[in-house]
Amino acid sequence: MIPVTTLAGKKVALFGLGGSGFATARALVLGGAEVTAWDDNPDSVTKAAAEGIHTADLRLIDWHAQSIFVLSPGVPLTHPKPHWTVDLARAAGVDIVGDVELFVRERRAHAPDSPFIAITGTNGKSTTTALIAHILKSSGRDTQLGGNIGTAVLTLEPPKAGRFHVVECSSYQIDLAPTLNPSAGILLNLTPDHLDRHGTMQHYADVKERLVAGSGVAVVGVDDSHCEMIADRVERAGGKVVRISRRHALADGIYAEGTKLVQAQAGTAIPIVDLDGIQTLRGSHNAQNAAAAVAACLAVGVSVDDIRAGLASFPGLKHRMQPVGRRGGTVFVNDSKATNADAAAPALSSYDHIYWIAGGLPKTGGITSLSPFFPRIAKAYLIGEAAAEFAATLGEAVPYEISGTLERAVAHAAEDAEKDESGAAAVLLSPACASFDQYKNFEVRGDAFVSHVAALDGITMLIGSATGDK
Questions:
Q1: Residues of the chain with pLDDT under 50
Q2: Is the Cα dihedral 275, 281, 287, 290 positive or negative?
Q3: d(CA 14, CA 22)
Q4: From the centroid of its chain, how far is CA 126?
Q5: Contact yes or no for 119/168 (Cβ under 8 A)
Q6: What is the pLDDT of residue 194?
Q7: C-alpha distances out from residue 39 to 16, 36, 49, 95, Å
Q8: Phi, psi of 214 (to 5 degrees)
Q9: Whose CA is closest to 250, among 289, 220, 205?
């Protein structure tokens, strides 16, 4: 854990005692702050009090005595309307920050030169974050991975010379980190998302821009107009920018040319690495993720040889296009995190002979938008509540069966794929649905898929256990 020593002896109000909020409260107390914490959930307050964290209704405290207000990122700061605690803090002139801001303050205070890579974007940030951390770890570097990817940043080991921190940042976290200043900051892409919390696309883009605007090196994907303009603004302001693209060649930057990543600099284009054959980095979306990882790793001093080795051995992000097993020419892929049609599209675009397991609790719009990928699907195996709806959409375009359960779908898909003569079949769980009709969450669904694959005769597992860990 990272003790928040920069607030030692100071009064700190904190709201939100979920996973990251509770960790933040502990880190503040450990660092010597006088914390007063609260949550709208009485059970969370009781748990914090039992851990020795001082709790009190923040409506009743003296806000003018507080040095700072720490807000959990899940709590509205601006839209649809500010949380009541935000109004109280602003009325008293108290600065509002989140856990990532506390981390960057600790880094500045104790190890300002320690390498820090921050990653954001609408899509691909978790894969890119995991890929960067894997490259660093596999090269023998002391690496800490956290943030929005699932490990609260203040639960990591503290910054120190030679220790690398790789932190995924959501827009909510960036909004609460006014002095965010990574060694290398990545903005992958921007498409409309979380507008219920940001009001407009422009405000959403403005928040995301802050991460790269404060970076030592800004790595920006320039395949959408918002990011292209952000890259130009950061550069005009004197920032060092590395542009990346998966769609077109660049005069300066890193771009994808088929499966190859090419670095263009001073009029010279040099191939860096070929992603062909790296199962966990299939598809143009992963070419963008890999290009960003390469740019960031180069920025913090990693050699090209170490980067190539890390890319080649990347095990993939659990539940996201993760190859989990192989039998003959068939690969079994866990993409359980694809809980809607848009999220399923990357996997469907990455294989040519697909035995597709889809269904669950349907989302608005169904799978109609995936029709361009139907020619890639040898057969579909439909499960859960969406089965009948998806069958109607597939119609005569794709052979299908209503399997009902995931276990039956895996067995039937594996049997049919074994007869595939292409030598490159993929049994793909990419449900395009929520899991809640049959499973607690997409993680449980993905783990169940892995277990069913592991039970097949003649299977070679590509991961270390039936829970999907490498």
A1: 466-470
A2: negative
A3: 10
A4: 2
A5: yes
A6: 54
A7: 5, 11, 11, 19
A8: -100, 10
A9: 220
164 within 8 A of 142, measured Cβ to Cβ:
yes
**How high is the pLDDT of residue 198?**
59
Tally of residues, the chain: 470
285 vs 259, 349, 422, CA distance in Å? Answer: 11, 10, 24
pLDDT value for 124 = 84
The vertex-212 CA angle with 210 and 215, nearest 5°, equals 110
> Six-digit token pair at 382?
């439909």
353-398: pLDDT as tens digits: 999 999 999 888 899 999 999 999 999 999 999 999 999 999 999 9
**Tokens 């940042």, located at residue:** 169
The pLDDT score that the predictor gives to residue 470 is 43
Backbone dihedral region of 240: left (phi > 0), alpha (psi from -120 to 50 degrees) or beta?
A: beta
Per-domain residue ranges of the chain: 5-97, 110-312, 322-461
Give 357-392 as a DSSP string.
EEESEEPTTTTGGGGGGGGGEEEEEEESTTHHHHHH
Q: In what order do the strands lie in the sheet with 96-97?
A: 34-38, 11-15, 68-71, 96-97
Specify whether the CB–CB gap between 168 and 152 falls below 8 A: no
CB neighbours (10 Å) of residue 281?
24
- Residues near 405 by beta carbon (within 8 Å), at least 6 away in sequence: 383, 438
| pLDDT at position 197 | 57
Instruction: Give the contacts of 27 (CB within 8 A, at least 6 positions apart).
Output: 1, 2, 3, 4, 99, 102, 154, 155
- CA-nearest of 213, 137, 206 to 182 is 213
Phi, psi at 398, each rounded to 5°: -135, 130
> Which pLDDT value is given to residue 468?
45
Give the amino acid at 382.
L
pTM attached to this predicted model: 0.86
Is the Cβ–Cβ distance between 99 and 7 less than 8 Å? Answer: no
Angle (CA) 162 165 168, round 5°? 165
For the chain, how long is the longest CA-to-CA vector? 73
Q: At residue 183, what is the residue type?
A: S
Tokens at residue 369, please? Answer: 């938008």
CATH 3.40.50.300 fits 5-97, yes or no: no
Q: What top-level class would CATH report for the domain 322-461? A: alpha beta
Nearest 10 degrees: Cα torsion 51, 53, 54, 58:
-110
Element (H, E) at 187: strand 184-187
Q: Which residues lie closer than 8 Å to 138 by C-beta, 6 or more apart? A: 306, 309, 310, 313
Angle between helices 99-110 and 19-30 (to 10 degrees): 30
Per CATH, is 110-312 categorized as 1.10.1040.10?
no
